[in-house]
From TrEMBL:
PROSITE patterns in UniProt: ADH_SHORT
InterPro entries: NAD(P)-bd_dom_sf, Sc_DH/Rdtase_CS, SDR_fam
Protein name: SDR family oxidoreductase
MF terms (GO), sorted A to Z: oxidoreductase activity, acting on the CH-OH group of donors, NAD or NADP as acceptor
PANTHER family the UniProt entry points to: 3-OXOACYL-[ACYL-CARRIER-PROTEIN] REDUCTASE FABG, SHORT-CHAIN DEHYDROGENASES/REDUCTASES FAMILY MEMBER
Family as reported in the entry's similarity comment: Belongs to the short-chain dehydrogenases/reductases (SDR) family.
Organism field: Flavisolibacter ginsenosidimutans
Keyword Cell inner membrane found: no
Keyword tags: Oxidoreductase
Entry-linked NCBIfam families: PRK07231.1 (NF005559), PRK12826.1-2 (NF009466)
């Protein structure tokens, strides 16, 4: 595998869902894509689908001390990191007063601390190269108030703030940092959830001007745009991919 011609990307949580859709778009366009996840079987299945430009690394990103070695391994294998997509994250749906300190911290640890740690390590190499693109995955939970996801909302709002701070600090080194805020994107899980709750389904579609759910590929296309020179003058943005949901009334 000759990495000179190919860009090299890390996609966390790349074994399924939005991460897999992003990895698919990348590999289809000649980007060597290292997908990181906890579930070895998911990673193996994803690699079979994505082909020879996909590599896998099994790692639990909540284990912060393991992150520097993960990044170093990628650099040793491929010589560089051009793109980092911070997609891995966890959620917790629970009444505000029922959320324990431990649960709140667990969400922040995975969704914020691990994003910081892997970005910090990748940036060390991007600075040397004088270029790089970091893409964080935000959420509608950072755009407006959603009930029963207090820790997740806090974590994704932190991601938006980090995106802007990183964009300003890292721009002089040729590193761009942006985020994507997906709206209601189709998956078996979201479809099942909405079909079992007609009231919520009606609410979702009534406030989404386009009147339909997005597809994982829509997020893949946005990530590809932000990862490549097509967006070379774009940094510090949080791009909603939501059919207008965040501005819908």
């Amino acid at each position: 595998m000759n990495t000179e011609q190919n860009k090299v990307a890390i996609v966390t949580g790349g074994g399924s869902g939005l991460g897999l859709a992003i990895a698919k778009k990348f590999t289809e366009n000649g980007i060597i894509t290292v997908i990181v996840g906890r579930d070895e079987q998911k990673l193996k299945t994803a690699k079979e689908q994505l082909g020879e430009l996909c590599e896998t690394i099994q790692c639990d990103l909540s284990d912060l001390p393991a992150i520097p070695k993960l990044v170093q391994d990628v650099v040793e294998r491929f010589g560089k990191i051009d793109i980092l997509v911070n997609n891995a994250g966890i959620n917790l749906k629970k009444e505000f007063t029922e959320v324990t300190d431990e649960e709140f911290l667990r969400i922040l640890h995975t969704n914020v601390c691990s994003v910081f740690a892997i970005s910090r390590e990748a940036v060390k190499h991007m600075k040397e190269a004088g270029s790089g693109s970091i893409i964080n995955i935000s959420s509608m939970a950072a755009q407006y108030g959603l009930p029963k996801v207090i820790a997740y909302s806090a974590s994704k709002t932190a991601i938006d703030g980090m995106t802007r701070a990183m964009a300003v600090e890292l721009s002089p080194f040729g590193i761009r940092t942006n985020a994507i805020a997906p709206g209601f994107i189709y998956s078996d899980m979201t479809a099942t959830a909405l079909n079992s709750d007609p009231e919520r389904k009606a609410k979702v579609f009534s406030r989404t001007p386009m009147g339909k759910m997005g597809q994982p590929e829509d997020v893949g296309e946005a990530a590809y745009y932000l990862a490549t020179d097509a967006s070379k003058y774009v940094t510090g943005v949080v791009l909603p991919v939501d059919g207008g949901n965040s501005i819908g009334f």
